[in-house]
Write a structure and sequence with these properties.
Elements lengths: L1 E7 L2 E6 L11 E9 L2 H8 L9 E2 L3 E9 L11 E4 L2 E2 L5 H4 L19 E2 L16 E4 L2 H4 E3 L6 H4 L5 H11 L7 E5 L3 H12 L4 E6 L2 H9 L3 E4 L5 H8 L7 E4 L75 H10 L12
Parallel strand pairs: 11-12, 11-14, 12-13
Antiparallel strand pairs: 1-2, 1-4, 3-5, 3-9, 5-6, 6-10, 7-8
Helix pairs in contact: 5-6
The protein binds nicotinamide-adenine-dinucleotide (NAD) and zinc ion.
Zinc ion (ZN) binds next to helix 2.
Length: about 350
């Protein structure tokens, strides 16, 4: 069968690979009819999420039709149309039974502290082949498959796999409620779904910040107010748009591959000050800018989170492929400029 295979940072190929088989009574084999690309796949392609085995099939968002089930899968049969959950969970352990499927004690061969298992991820995330393939093996299929009615087409259903739940979770974590003014950082698939999620929770105003005009246009088509960080200072602009008060809630929908403005008043100075005496030097505020752009220097991972190293020459360029006009040397210069800062619970800033 054909599958999208990871051969190295920036080296993704469509290759012939062996078809998966039922290996365990709780497995199902699903014929994939639609698969999506997640921002998380981009981290793997760029090398900002390390630990992938050569030849690993990528992808964790897909819809398909059950082809074969093991004897332990009693709730699905061949021919059922399903959406596949990106994370794998046994459905039996105490954490699964508490509804915390991403913290399953049994799915990761490394044991209860091994972290979330997901398709097409690093070895530390279970080392499972992914869903950007003609067929996929789904472990614990009785828990990980969700039946789809025929009234929901593949294009809409695939959003239910990861993108929309992630955005919904983000909007719930942010505590969005009636009348809130909400800022959404990042207008990728998650950011776009976060606009819908925030609205659904009653947001009064939604402001989306990104540096890509086509994505901002898509957000505007959802009637979000947009700020392009390459033409305006986003902090100043949001302050101005909110009468100086700022927003009530913020949803960060960017992740480890956060970019700095390349143009406009929020663009960082050409050179950041060098660290002195092992401590980061205080920054000089660039003219017109009020906030330091996000750095890409996550530290070691918390349990359950993929380990993300400090940027290193072997980690590949910070953006892959580099932006048009950006040379390899500018990518490495950006890496050298990377400053240490404390990371969030998943080592993601
Ligand atoms: N797509 C999914 O289903 C999914 C699910 C779970 C988690 N995630 C994670 O959520 C994050 C977003 O996912 P995505 O698929 O939308 O990714 P994406 O890479 O398609 O979108 C990220 C967007 O953020 C913008 N951006 C970069 N730097 C920025 C900055 N400093 N300020 C504002 N915007 C900035 C980029 O221009 C891009 O449009 C990723 O970290 C991904 O790993 C995605
Ligand atoms: Zn479990």
């Amino acid at each position: 069968m054909k599958a999208v295979v990871w051969r190295g940072v920036g080296d993704i190929r469509v290759e012939d690979v062996p078809e998966p088989k039922v290996q365990d009574p709780h497995d199902a084999v699903v014929r994939i009819t639609t698969a999506a690309i997640s921002g998380t796949d981009l981290h793997l392609v760029r090398g900002t999420l390390p630990g992938l085995r050569q030849g690993r099939v990528l992808g964790h968002e897909a819809v398909g039709v059950v082809e074969e089930t093991g004897s332990g899968v009693r709730n699905f049969r061949p021919g059922d149309r399903v959406v596949i959950s990106p994370t794998v969970a046994c459905g039996t352990c105490p954490t699964c039974r508490a509804g915390l499927y991403a913290q399953c004690d049994d799915a990761n061969p490394a044991g209860p502290h091994g972290g979330t298992v997901f398709f097409g991820g690093p070895e530390s995330a279970g080392g499972l082949d992914g869903l950007q393939a003609e067929y996929a093996r789904v472990p614990f299929a009785h828990t990980g498959l969700v039946a789809l009615p025929d009234s929901v087409d593949d294009g809409r259903a695939v959003l239910l796999s990861d993108t929309l739940p992630t955005a919904w979770f983000g909007a719930r974590l942010a505590g969005v409620s009636g009348g809130d003014t909400v800022a959404i950082l990042g207008a990728g698939p998650v950011g776009q779904c976060a606009v819908a999620a925030a609205r659904h929770l009653g947001a009064g105003r939604v402001i989306v910040v990104d540096g890509l005009t086509d994505r901002l246009a898509l957000a505007r088509a959802q009637h979000a107010e947009t700020v392009d960080f390459n033409s305006e200072d986003p902090v100043e602009k949001v302050r101005e748009m909110t009468g100086g008060a700022g927003v009530d809630r913020v949803i960060e929908a960017v992740g480890v591959d956060a970019e700095r403005p390349v143009l406009g008043p929020a663009r960082p100075p050409t050179r950041w000050p060098r660290p002195r005496n092992g401590r980061a030097a205080r920054r000089r505020t660039p003219p017109g800018a009020t906030a330091r752009p996000p750095s890409r220097a996550p530290t070691s991972a918390a349990p359950g989170c993929p380990a993300t190293p400090r940027a290193s020459p072997s980690a590949g360029p910070s953006r892959w492929p580099p932006r048009p006009g950006a040379s390899a040397s500018s990518a490495s210069t950006r890496r050298r400029r990377t400053a240490s800062r404390s990371a969030g619970p998943c080592g993601r800033t």
